[in-house]
Design a protein that fits this description.
Bound molecules: 1,4-dihydronicotinamide adenine dinucleotide
Number of strands: 10
Strand content: 15-25%
Shape: globular
Largest sheet: 7 strands, mixed
Distance between the termini: 50 Å
Strand order of the largest sheet: 6-7-5-4-8-9-10
Oligomer: single chain
Structural class: alpha/beta
Helix content: 40-55%
Order of helices and strands: HEHHEEHEHHEEEHEHEEH
Number of helices: 9
């Protein structure tokens, strides 16, 4: 992992990656930080600052080589390699994740789905068979698992996450609404759509305030 780079910068990287991918698809070979800035609505100085964290990539008077930058950011984000994912909890959300194919384009491949509900045993989602949790240990021994997605009720999340860690899985993509208590070396990425909605709600309230102030003027 890159040391000393703030999470805020890392969080902006996927967006750069997405934009550069679109430029590449459109046949654009190089771009100045000003042009990229106009497209992404981020200041050019922010772009230069962000990319300087990784040693630049730009050349004075030339701009950025789109393919090179795209590949380098891919390497930084570790998506130049395949990540095998298992999904724990094959309910609504787990099945939705398994049905979404675009993760694969970025090298995230769902290789297994697990649940405790016998009614789901043997059901396949986009060709991936739902297995019972008691098969997990043997599965993890037989195949490389890099990430476990947790899409189970929060009451079972901590205990299950700790079991996964014991089996050697050290990266959790956590959708359960709970702050997991895990050893420090385990990396956890929490995804909470409701947090995003609350952020939206806050911004709606501010937008109203801003409009009201503007109308008063
Ligand atoms: P669901 O009830 O459709 O699916 C949950 C599945 O987990 C069921 O199939 C159940 O049998 C299985 N399960 C229960 N205990 C288990 C265990 N110990 N091991 C393996 N499987 C187990 O629920 P849904 O809608 O798919 O939601 C799943 C979780 O994701 C919930 O905790 C929910 O709150 C959360 N969620 C989070 C969102 C987010 O943005 N972070 C959005 C939607 C749901």
């Amino acid at each position: 992992m890159e040391k000393g780079i703030s999470q805020a910068v890392i969080r902006r990287m996927p967006r750069y990656y997405r934009y550069l991918g679109e430029l590449l698809d459109g046949g654009v070979e190089r771009i100045s930080s000003n042009e990229l800035s106009a497209r992404m609505r981020v200041t050019a100085s922010q772009i230069r600052q962000d990319l300087n964290n990784f040693g630049g990539f730009g050349q004075q008077g030339y701009g950025y080589n789109v393919k090179y930058l795209y590949d380098e950011i891919g390497k930084i984000l570790g998506i130049n390699q395949q990540h095998n994912i298992i999904v724990i909890g094959a309910g609504n959300l787990g099945q939705a994740l398994a049905n979404y194919m675009k993760f694969e384009k970025r090298g995230f491949v769902i290789i297994g789905l697990f649940d405790v509900d016998p009614a789901l045993e043997g059901v396949t989602i986009r060709g991936i068979q739902v297995r019972m949790m008691d098969e997990l240990q043997a599965f993890v021994k037989a195949q490389r698992v890099d990430i476990a997605a947790l899409t189970i009720p929060k009451e079972r999340a901590d205990e299950t996450a700790n079991e996964l860690v014991k089996l050697g899985i050290h990266a959790i993509w956590n959708f359960a609404h709970l702050d997991l208590e895990l050893p420090e070396y385990v990396v956890v990425e929490n995804v909470h759509l409701s947090d995003s909605l609350m952020q939206l709600s806050y911004n709606i309230a501010n937008q109203r305030k801003f409009k009201e102030q503007k109308d008063k003027k």
